[in-house]
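Hi support team,

I submitted a single chain yesterday and got back a structure, but I'm not sure I'm reading the token output correctly. Could someone confirm the output below corresponds to the sequence I sent? I've pasted both exactly as they appear in my results page.

Thanks,
R.
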Amino acid sequence: MKIIFAGPSLPDAASLAGEGIRILPPATQGDVLAATEQGANVIGLIDGGFEYAAPVWHKEILHALSLGVAVFGAASMGALRAAECHPFGMIGIGRIFEDYRTGRLVDDAAVALTHAPSALGSKPLTVPLVNVRATLDVMEDRGLLARGVRQELEDAASAIFFKKRTWRAVVEQCGGLAERDRTDLLAALLSNAIDQKRIDALALLKAVQDARDIRSSADLPWKLHETSFLTRPAL
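Hi R., thanks for writing in. Yes, this is the structure output for that exact sequence:
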């Protein structure tokens, strides 16, 4: 059984996954453990809750890995957990994972955003910092940003709380720009916007589709130490 936890990073996951993959809402603590106990052989973690519920616990991921479950992570909570658990066998995918793994990214909030409820399709309502940086990289490579503007935009985006970070808010935060320049810059940002979280989430989806739907019996170079916290009823 293959399971993917997805939300605003890939709101159309269910229509893209195809047969044989079950799409569940963003994971919170205990969801990976439950999926493992229900017989999942392949788990893809894209999105996860963190603000109003306890996030996915590292040990439930390690528990799944210890049983031979293939666990992939990308884009959002999945990238964070993959960067932390890849030494134990979790498979990280995409630029965001690599940025966390190598230390180019350190702040968990870089992937955070506000989105519509699942009943309304989980559509993103704000722009995560990882998408801002990916967009600015592309625009800089294309020669679309004047000298110094890229850093000013990145600093502005970093200073805005994730629940209020939109492209308009980022541009308005740049105090040294004339009104006409703001209008042109906003249009350029919107037309060149890169959704890095979606790009990485699609790569994870492909990896899960291609993965063998069996539990591996390969020996691990580490041993999971069972504790009462792993199976306590409250989890």
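A quick pointer for reading it: The chain has a mean pLDDT of 91. Let us know if anything else looks off.

Best,
Support desk
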